[in-house]
Amino acid sequence: MTNGVCGMRKRDQPNGIDRQLLYSEVDNFCPRCKQSLLENKGARRRLIGEAAHIYPLNPTLEDSIALKGIPEPDDINGLDNFIILCPSCHDIFDNPRTHEEYLELYNLKKEYIEKRHLKNLYAQYGIQDEIRVVVDRLSECDFDNGELRTVKKALKIEGKVGSNFDFYKRRSIENNVVDYFRFIQNLFSELDASLPGTFECIACEVRAFYLSAARKTDDKLLIFESVSEWIRTKAGLSVSLQACEIVASFFVQNCEVFSDATQ
């Protein structure tokens, strides 16, 4: 939207639900300095964040030089071009806006958008109720009493997730596979014995969710975390997230989640 008198575009600030969504993206903390955006004054509380345009609304000559080669978004006042900052960081970001700072916030916002799209998948994809049995057994079992039968090696996890995947999360997945793969495999065999096809149904549902998630982002860490959170959402939010990550690790090893990048 432009102002006919001076040719300057009008600032349309997000309000209502859109503004709440922007705050939820950053968990009520400034994404740059980590300051809380919730201010307490006695018995009163108020949000002090400011909605900042990532790509400038009306670029100055300095902005145009700094952002040379970067395309303007289709909707300059659209929600995807806003990010909540504390007043201080908003001022620093705008005066002057540098190429590096723009890319920092652009990439942060890109991650927030992808997380939002992935969360939207949770309601779209169901999973068999028996997944709760698997998660609960993982949470309840005393593995010190010999219920755990480990495998010798997690096969090709690095090849599946790629060399840029977070090292510590990759090691966690590998350890989960070594420690729990056989246990989960046996659980699914028990479920299949009482209700044939249970494992195949769940495996297909996990695969379908993964494929849809992979269309939303190429960030494999985000995808793995989303698979784990989706399982937790379907099994019940009170269940252990760690147990859900163990189940997600099982499906990485079993090839429902990710493919071998070396092939």
Any low-confidence stretches, pLDDT <50, length ≥5? 1-5
Sequence of strands across the biggest β-sheet: 1-2
DSSP, total strands: 4
Molecular shape: elongated
The H/E string reads HEEEHEHHHHHHHH
Radius of gyration: 23 Å
Helical content, roughly?
A: 40-55%
Distance between the termini: 50 Å
Report the sheet with the most strands, covering strand number, pairing sense and barrel closure.
Answer: 2 strands, antiparallel
Task: Summarize the SSE layout with pairings.
Layout: H1 16-25, E1 38-41, E2 44-47, E3 50-53, H2 61-66, E4 82-85, H3 87-94, H4 99-124, H5 131-140, H6 157-161, H7 167-194, H8 198-216, H9 220-235, H10 241-253
Brief overview:
With 263 residues, the chain is mostly helical. The protein has helices at residues 16-25, 61-66, 87-94, 99-124, 131-140, 157-161, 167-194, 198-216, 220-235, 241-253; strands at 38-41, 44-47, 50-53, 82-85.
Kindly describe this structure.
The protein has 263 residues and is mainly alpha-helical. It folds into two domains: 16-115, no CATH class; 125-253, no CATH class. The protein is 54% helix and 6% strand. The protein has a two-stranded antiparallel ribbon with strand order 1-2. It has a two-stranded antiparallel ribbon with strand order 3-4. Strand 1 (38-41) and strand 2 form a beta hairpin. Mean pLDDT is 89; it is low at 1-5.
Give the key terms.
two-stranded antiparallel sheet, single chain, 4 strands, elongated, disordered N terminus, mainly alpha, 263 residues
